[in-house]
Amino acid sequence: AAYCTGLLLARRLLNKFGLDSVYEGQLEVTGDEYNVESIDGKPGAFTCYLDAGLARTTTGNKVFGALKGAVDGGLSIPHSTKRFPGYDCESKEFNAEVHRKHIMGQNVSEYMSYLMEEDEDAYKKQFSRFIKNGVTPDKVNDMYTKAHAAIRENPVHEKKPLKEVKKKRWNRAKLSLAQRKDRVAQKKSSFLRAQEQAD
């Protein structure tokens, strides 16, 4: 999902600046390292930098999934493979196939299969939305493939029409001057009536 978010961000941004046809990015998800290069005679590649903010920059963090999606979408972001899933810090080697499996949700489908066999109740609880939408462990890969294709086909944000909201009043509406004067007159008359009855 983080990869899809990054891909959508990249395609929308490039579409906004008219660079989406110039910089297609990486069309096939391989998980390999990919860097966008500027094309001669065309506007330069849109360069941006990752600001991790308060996110923990550990290997496999979702921030880097979004970064990979943005790079594959056609943005030029300086990065290394050290924080992508599949990087082994001991051997200092990067396994692109592990990264590809994470992008395509294979780790999730494996966990779904494991839970289906081990604990049916936990599976139904944790993956209730998947069950509701008819997503099984075999269909996760296809779901992400369709999502990537849909993002590339039409990344433009469509504004929804604003709903007419009828505001509720929680406090009492202010009385007008005429209403206040009328209220005072009513109070006076009731007070005078009470005085007359007392006498």
Automatic annotation (TrEMBL):
Q: Report if keyword Iron-sulfur is assigned.
A: no
Q: Where is this region: Disordered?
A: 157-199
Quick one: a GO cellular component term? cytosolic large ribosomal subunit
Among SUPFAM superfamilies, the record links this protein to:
Translational machinery components (SSF53137)
Q: Tell me the keywords, alphabetical order.
A: Cytoplasm, Ribonucleoprotein, Ribosomal protein, RNA-binding, rRNA-binding
Q: Where does it live in the cell?
A: Cytoplasm
In this protein, which residues make up the domain named Large ribosomal subunit protein uL18 C-terminal eukaryotes?
A: 141-193
Known Gene3D superfamilies for this protein?
Answer: 3.30.420.100
Highest taxon, organism lineage: Eukaryota
Q: What is its main location?
A: cytoplasm
InterPro entries per UniProt: Rbsml_uL18_euk_arch, Ribosomal_uL18_C_euk
Output the Gene Ontology terms for molecular function: 5S rRNA binding; structural constituent of ribosome
Q: Which Gene Ontology BP annotations are present?
A: ribosomal large subunit assembly; translation
Plastid keyword on record: no
**Which family does the UniProt entry place this protein in?**
Belongs to the universal ribosomal protein uL18 family.
**Name this polypeptide is given:** 60S ribosomal protein L5
Q: Which organism is it from?
A: Acipenser gueldenstaedtii (Russian sturgeon)
| UniProt lineage | Eukaryota, Metazoa, Chordata, Craniata, Vertebrata
